[in-house]
Amino acid sequence: MNQNTTKKPHINFLITGGAGFIGSNFIKYLLKKYQNYRVINIDKLTYCGNLKNLEDFIKNPLYKFINGDICNKSFVEKIAIEEQIDVVVNFAAESAVDRSIQYGEKHIQTNINGVRVLLEVFNEKKVKKFIQISTDEVYGETESDNPADENFILNPSSTYSVSKAAADLLCKAYHRTYDMPIMIVRPVNNFGPYQFPEKIISRFVTNILQDKPVSLYGDGQHLRNWIFVEDTCNAIDTVLSKGTTGEIYNISTNNSITNLNLTKKIINILGQSETLIKYVEDRPGHDKQYYIDSGKIRELGWYPIRDFEESLKYTVHWYKNNVNWWKPLLSKVKLNSC
Prior knowledge:
It is a single chain. This protein is α/β, with parallel strands linked by helices. Helices cover 37% and strands 17% of the residues. Helix 5 links the parallel strand 5 and strand 6.
């Protein structure tokens, strides 16, 4: 009997910002799950981009890294043509809220103008799907009795969240005007291995491992919802395969916890004393809490799998066991409070 040995053609993915935290985890997710996905990773390699995140895939013939800036239109056009891109997932962004308060020009440039360039190029090239990675922070402060669904008014509080909201509106305009096949996802706070030691979990773990204090903004009662990065990767994949173009999908869990209680959990996992906690003056415009409704993506069949407590322990121990990964990065960490 003759067997059909025809191979499926490769689907060419462009992952922007793929040397960052969520982007690198998503590349690993794709390459492990799919045999016919070819991944092109472009990253400017700013302070939080790290090629060590993807060392295991350097020799994979289905993976290719190209150093470049999404704000450079001629560069993006060259990639679009030479790599015959089918799908774009845009993780590229300046993401630190504190940095955006102190100096937000880079956030405006990358998060708005960079997205505009991507939209212009890939609308012209008729990309099959375009996923914009946004954030729950575009909704601003929300209440538990009135969680934000995807139609909730946007009320961002920082240059970072304003820039992400503006990018979302650009995406919606391109879908409306050109029928470009765009979908937007808005995840809550992510955590896991390979996160630059600037966010609260990665920063506090690395501080405590060095016997340094951890600085909490205000009273530490700011409430955030947390999701393990692998669950976010699965959610994005679900949207890619089952989502409707032109739609927005919130990604959240039931893992809401105050910054203070989160800090205490980290300290407890590491067997240290709560005397390491230091309270500092709150930052300007600091949203007290976020609540978003992810019922829409759950209708597609997605739900978070990872247990928060176990995932937090796993993450803390990953940093404990990978000092050689994070220690060289500490010179790039300029802000010390959360």
